[in-house]
Design brief:
Layout lengths: L2 H20 L9 E5 L5 E2 L4 E6 L3 E9 L7 E8 L2 E6 L6 E11 L4 E10 L28 H29 L1
Parallel strand pairs: 2-8
Antiparallel strand pairs: 1-3, 3-6, 4-7, 5-6, 7-8
Helix pairs in contact: 1-2
């Protein structure tokens, strides 16, 4: 093999190594395995929402809203291993509620979803809470920003720069032979 061919092969191998080390590994996101109240169930007014995932989670956010987008969660959600608990503010009046949730899986990826349940036979009255006029990511939650977009931009820029460097190196090496 000629020297130019060996240099070209080395450049391609270097580029492949850069691409391999910046590729995102297969994700092992967690999934919601059960919820209380259950999805599409009809229940008495719950005092809390309990979400159970397939793997441990962190940084939970749970929002409970009615059809008018009034929020009923009290305080912050708590995650212990794979279980997230969110207290409900007062007694929910009869109606359909949406539970919006977002957690960070053990692999670092955010996972989110929603489901509904219905309260029937409640003695509770709706509190005078106005809906929040913020951008929504899950039903009723504020957009807290997402830094993963910047991570992808940085990784793409790194791959493009490595590719351009490999091409320039290959051309310079070919010109010297």
């Amino acid at each position: 093999m000629s020297r130019a061919t060996l240099r070209g092969a080395a450049g391609i191998a270097a580029l492949a190594a850069v691409l391999a080390t910046t590729a995102v590994p297969a994700s092992a996101h967690t999934a919601l395995t059960s919820a209380s109240p259950e999805k599409d169930s009809t229940v008495a007014a719950p005092s809390q929402i309990v979400l159970t995932y397939g793997d441990p989670v962190r940084l939970p956010r749970v929002v409970v809203t009615d059809g008018s987008r009034r929020q009923y969660q009290a305080g912050s959600a708590r995650a212990v291993d794979n279980k997230v608990t969110q207290a409900v503010n007062g007694t929910l009046p009869d109606g359909t509620y949406t539970v919006g949730w977002r957690v960070v899986a053990s692999d670092g990826h955010p996972v989110e979803g929603t489901y509904t349940f219905t309260v029937q036979g409640s003695s509770g009255a709706a509190p005078p809470v106005a809906p929040s006029p913020v951008r929504k990511t899950i039903v009723g939650t504020e957009d807290q920003g997402n830094s993963s977009g910047w991570l992808w931009i940085g990784l793409i820029a790194l791959v493009v720069a490595a590719g351009a460097g490999a091409v320039a190196w290959f051309r310079r090496s070919s010109a010297q032979d």
